Amino acid sequence: MAATTEQRAEPLPPRGSTAWGRLKRNSLAVVGLAIVVVIVALALAAPILPLADPNITEPADRLMPPFSEGAWLGTDQLGRDMLSRLVWGARVSIAVGVAATLVAALIGSTIGLIAAYFGRITDNVLMRGVDMLMAFPYLLLALAIVAALGPGLINALLAIAVVNIPFFARSVRGATLGLVNREFIEAARLSGFSDTRIILSELLPNVLPVIVITMSTTVGWMILETAGLSFLGLGAQPPQADLGSMLGDGRGLVMTAPHVSVVPGVLILILVIGINLLGDGLRDVLDPRLKSGALSRPVARTEVAPGPPSGSGDKGALLEVTGLETEFRVGRRVLKAVNGVDFTLQPGESLGIVGESGSGKSVTAMSILGLVPTPPGIISKGAIRFQGTDLLRLPLRDLQDIRGNRISYIFQDPLTTLNPLLRVGDQVEETLIRHQGLSSRAAMAQAVELLNAVGLPDPRTKARAFPHELSGGQRQRVVIAMALANRPDLIIADEPTTALDVTTQARVLDLLNDLRRQTGAALIFITHDLGVVSELCERVLVMYAGRVVESGPVDAVFNQPRHPYTAALLACVPVLGEPDRSLAAIPGLPPAVDDLPRGCAFADRCPLVLPDCRAREILLARSGEGRRSRCIRWQEVGHG
Ligand code: ADP
Ligand code: MG
Fold this sequence. Notes:
The chain is α/β, with parallel strands linked by helices. The chain has four domains: 29-290, MetI-like (MetI-like fold); 293-402, P-loop containing nucleotide triphosphate hydrolases (Rossmann fold); 404-537, P-loop containing nucleotide triphosphate hydrolases (Rossmann fold, 3-Layer(aba) Sandwich), CATH 3.40.50.300; 560-569 and 577-636, no CATH class. The chain has 24 helices and 13 strands. The protein has helices at 2-7, 19-25, 27-44, 82-118, 120-135, 138-149, 153-180, 183-190, 195-231, 243-250, 259-286, 288-291, 361-368, 396-402, 414-417, 424-436, 440-453, 459-462, 472-484, 502-519, 530-536, 554-559, 564-571, 611-615; strands at residues 303-304, 319-330, 333-345, 350-354, 377-386, 389-390, 407-410, 490-494, 522-526, 539-544, 547-553, 621-622, 628-629. The strands form two sheets. An eight-stranded mixed β-sheet has the order 7-8-9-4-10-11-13-12, with helices on both faces. Strands 1, 2, 3, 5 and 6 form a five-stranded mixed β-sheet that branches. Helix 2 crosses helix 11 (259-286) and helix 5 packs across helix 7 (153-180). The longest helix has 37 residues, at 82-118. The chain is elongated and about 105 Å long. Residues 1-16 have low confidence and may be disordered. The structure holds adenosine-5'-diphosphate (ADP) and magnesium ion (MG). The site of magnesium ion has 3 residues, from helix 13.
């Protein structure tokens, strides 16, 4: 076990978690950034660079080819220095493009925020206006606007900004709509904030990434569009030049002096490619869904680190978990959610897993069926044998045959398990058809029978109901019906009744227990309610900071705990008929699972702590008949 502790320091592949770190990993974005930085730096430095005056004409030196003496990129038809005009022109183009982006972003985002926040008529009026802008072909509209306002850079800027407003208005409205009904906005309304304040301090910060993403992906276009208007003579007016008007000036000389148009053309190309590469990179970095890894690799099962196949231990056992370690790799941090868990479950046995929130109960259970999300989760060590099969090394197809069939899972919140768009009867039928290959008629009959067995009143009608038409207790009954549908050998229930009121909870638990006994299924029951465990389970595992700290028969463990943590948990439970008993909260907090101490993780909160507890790893050792405890002073627990 000492080796396990050493392994913790194992270096991980570096994964940047900061925005800059993620951008750096995208090599195209880095190229884009380099291009943009160089061009913008040159443009900004134009006044201090040793360049000729871009507007001084020198008829004697007209149309000098590139690499001539004193004119690096040659001269144009009026003898003006191309390099100087290029740098000054880029300055104008970038300034106009960026300014147009800011104007469009400001107006468009305001429209989007207001439309989504106020909804109804405001939304309709604003968005129909935006639709009208979008109905026109976009460069044509810009042309029409400049034609109306008169040619000139500022008017071109305004025209480009106006035609880009819809992009901002639509994406910001979409992002805001997803937020306006969220609880934190309700809470802000209830605390009496004004609409302006809510929009500015609650909504705006949340849609800012969307605004920045839209800006970074449209600024390249806006520079191109400005160049387009200038090319047509509607933007920059002589003698001032931007990249577009330079291109326009060279138009007639393509055959005789191609460099006059090729030079600004190439710069526009490079600049826009650079900006777009950078913009795409920024979008990937800023999109919160990509950041959390949710969209990057949706995998059907938890990643398992390579390791030797497990040898078989207890032949008769239904489930055997040995040395299970599941961690989350978030950026540079490694969260050891499950840190060496062992337990065995016999057929038909019921096992409770208890512990504070965050102690690793759910991750342990989800690891069994490979349901821990990857990334960031990974099962780094251990073995899980179910009826003698190594689940961690089972092909996905075979694992899917076990899920919901031989092992079924009941989650805490039935609303997240049930598909809101399907009738509940159909969802029960689905599992029957998937795993038993029943005909749809037979499945329907059996689904109604199951819904009847879980005590739904009028099951035939209820089978045609949608999840939202049922109460919380009824929904959880449906989920239990689904879990039992294929007569599983093991049911894993993760806080199945936490979302229900106490009376419903008791009834649902009785039901679960009765049906489990009838079918002979084993049960893993996860809860923080010790009372429920003592009613429902034969054995109990007490978890703390990703480890089992005590295990044994429920009655023995609860009557005479042999780990100070179990004793502390029991002291938190109110006892009926003892109103004077003081309820002790456990002082302190559990340790962070990315920074676990070397010795006992409970040491800092333990009344029995000795220096030895922190010095070395404490092993889970026998502490009585069928009992184990991870405490060197287990004999003294509960004696003073
Ligand atoms: P509980 O005992 O309350 O069921 P869990 O097993 O859900 O606790 O969580 C154990 C630890 O794993 C917690 O510290 C939690 O923060 C971490 N964890 C769980 N899911 C994720 C995830 N998707 N990403 C990162 N950390 C996670
Ligand atoms: Mg949990």
